[in-house]
Design goal:
Radius of gyration: 14 Å
Largest sheet: 7 strands, mixed
Distance between the termini: 40 Å
Helix content: under 10%
Structural class: mainly beta
Shape: elongated
């Protein structure tokens, strides 16, 4: 049973940076996709960044060029480096794992970490 725990959120001024971490209790398979989502008050959950099992990355247009997703499989950790933060980045950020185990879908969510961008 894989468990994901996010950390690194907090209060930051506009233009600042934060790095979010997501640590898995078990091994992250190289074939698993790892995602970062966010949800702001009153808005739907938004996919922010994806890193595939092959290491390819893609980003929402609103964060492309400012955010970077990476993974360290040896440490069972995925990161989201967030630079040039804007007030509209304020949200609860969730780590998500999607994979397949014995031909069954595996989806795991972390508890979320709050990022607040404000002066």
């Amino acid at each position: 049973q894989v468990q994901l725990v996010e950390s690194g959120g907090g209060l930051v001024q506009p233009g600042g940076s934060l790095r979010l971490s997501c640590v898995a209790s078990g091994s992250i398979s190289s074939s698993d996709g790892m995602n970062w989502y966010r949800q702001a008050p009153g808005k739907e959950r938004e996919l922010v960044a994806v890193i595939t099992g092959g290491g390819s990355t893609r980003y929402a247009g609103t964060v492309k060029g400012r955010f970077t997703i990476s993974r360290d499989n040896a440490k069972n950790t995925v990161f989201l480096q967030m630079n040039t933060l804007k007030p509209e980045d304020t949200a609860v950020y969730y780590c998500n794992l999607q994979g397949v185990r014995s031909f069954r879908k595996l989806e795991v969510w972390g508890q979320g970490t709050l990022v607040t961008v404000s002066s």
